[in-house]
Design goal:
With about 60 residues, the protein is an alpha+beta fold. It has a domain at about 25-59. It is about 10% helix and about 15% strand. The chain has one helix and four strands, in the order αββββ. The radius of gyration is 22 Å and the shape is elongated. It starts with 9 loop residues before the first helix and ends in a 6-residue tail after the last strand. It binds zinc ion. Zinc ion binds near residues 43 and 45.
């Protein structure tokens, strides 16, 4: 296995990681109740997913 010859500096390490931060996911609007919801998840407000009721809404 290839081994690095020299230790990379903290600046070089941190510069490499400067692109790794995750962006906050932007909310989408539910097609059933028009509330903001997480994309590709069952709507927390009405329990619908892809136009079908999957889960009854919580009280
Ligand atoms: Zn909904």
């Amino acid at each position: 296995m290839a081994v690095p010859k020299k230790k990379h500096s903290k600046m070089r390490r941190d510069r490499r990681r400067s692109h790794l931060a995750l962006k906050p996911s932007s909310p989408v609007t539910c097609s059933h109740c028009k509330q903001p919801m997480v994309a590709h998840r069952v709507c927390a407000n009405c329990g619908y997913y892809a136009g079908v009721e999957v889960k009854p809404p919580e009280e």
